[in-house]
Amino acid sequence: MIGTVRHALALAVLCMILAGAGLARAEGFPNGKALYGKNCAVCHGADGSVSEYGKHLKPFPARNLRAMAQWLDADEFRRIITYGLHNSEMTAKKYTLNPLEIEAVIRYIKTFTFRPKPGMGKKRYMQVCAVCHGRDGRARTGLGAKNLVYSKLDMKGLIHTIRLGRPGTMMTPKFNQISSPDIVNIAAYIYSLRYKANGQRGAMLFRKNCASCHTTPGHIRLTGNAGLQSTMNRLNANQLELRLRYGRHAHLADKSVSKLSSDNIHDIMAYIREWTSKK
Ligand code: HEC
Ligand code: HEC
Ligand code: HEC
User: Fold this and answer.
1) What CATH number did the domain enclosing 75 receive?
2) Helix (H, G, I), strand (E, B) or coil at 199
3) Structure letter (DSSP) for residue 194
């Protein structure tokens, strides 16, 4: 009996100590909203969508943190805030904020939300990107740009590529040319252009164009080295398209096969994927 009371007492004391420590930690974690208001709002605006003052900074205006909040990783925020951005009013904050305060500011920025507007994105896309990527995103411009309709990048990947470009290619960084809301809007527009492969359509195309020689997808044999090292399952749609159009297969299969559109090949690929995943 006395033992239990003692236990209960000890437990109560332990709980109090733990609760106290928890409280101390909560008090110790800096207030991100207040820090943001004091150190960032003058340029980035109280709600993150740039102040009047921030809009007129030279050589580059302050950027809209609201638009980017969900699409930049905390790592990237940390780097930019700690070290600043070269040749701009975005100076390194590591002399004014300690690492914990920077984390608190990032957490606060991460509460900002922004709804992309693909319609606005389309307008900017036509102005800036269509010249290389084509008005339909399929890049049939002869300039070597990528077909965006089959891109595998997710929203983060698209935004990353638009911001920083691809070094050594004509895809130059667009960071200073396009505002953050427009970058997100354009990415949302590109995403909406994506071709949605349809396995059922693929099954029909397979019956019509392939089944005369390959009874089912399981009957397709990869030739040459590919046959030793890979399987149909591991070929992506681009590799399949190359094999169909230019591979050993080309001279064996019917002319109609080489005339299939890329969309059709993506449908057939989707069918093959569904078929093999069921086996
Ligand atoms: C004196 C004005 C000013 C202050 C104060 C300021 N910034 Fe900036 N910030 C800028 C400017 C200007 C840029 C854009 C620089 C460029 O385009 O190269 C920028 C860019 C950024 C970016 C990059 C956004 C993107 O889309 O890549 C982040 C993140 C950022 N600031 C965070 C902060 C945070 C957090 C604070 C407060 C701790 C802060 N800034 C304080 C002016 C400021
Ligand atoms: C001067 C021509 C040119 C312009 C203008 C251009 N791009 Fe590109 N883009 C390219 C090239 C070339 C590549 C391929 C780079 C490579 O080899 O990785 C590319 C690649 C990309 C990719 C990567 C796609 C993937 O799946 O890997 C995206 C996304 C992209 N561009 C978006 C845009 C957007 C959005 C714009 C307009 C804001 C734009 N590009 C403007 C030439 C251009
Ligand atoms: C006229 C007959 C014929 C038709 C039609 C045909 N193929 Fe083939 N295909 C072949 C032959 C023969 C090979 C060589 C490998 C083998 O013997 O199975 C082959 C090989 C392949 C390969 C492997 C290519 C390589 O380089 O390893 C793929 C992938 C393939 N076919 C897919 C298809 C698809 C998808 C279709 C329909 C769009 C199709 N084939 C239509 C006869 C045909």
Assistant:
1) 1.10.760.10
2) helix
3) -
Distance 144 CA to ligand 3 centre (A): 29
- Ligand 2 atom 34, closest CA: 129
Contact 110, 74 (CB under 8 A): yes
Structural domain count of the chain: 3
**Rounded (5°) CA angle 120-118-109:** 90
Whether residue 20 is predicted with pLDDT greater than 70 in this model: the reply is: no
Best CA proximity match to 129, nearest among 72, 91, 86, 172:
172
pTM comes to: 0.84
34 and 101 part of one domain: yes
Q: How far is the CA of 60 from the centre of ligand 1 (A)?
A: 10
Q: Which of 238, 252, 273, 275 to mutate to test the pocket of ligand 3 (most atoms within 8 A of CB)?
A: 252
pLDDT at 24: 41
80 lines ligand 1 (CB under 6 A): yes
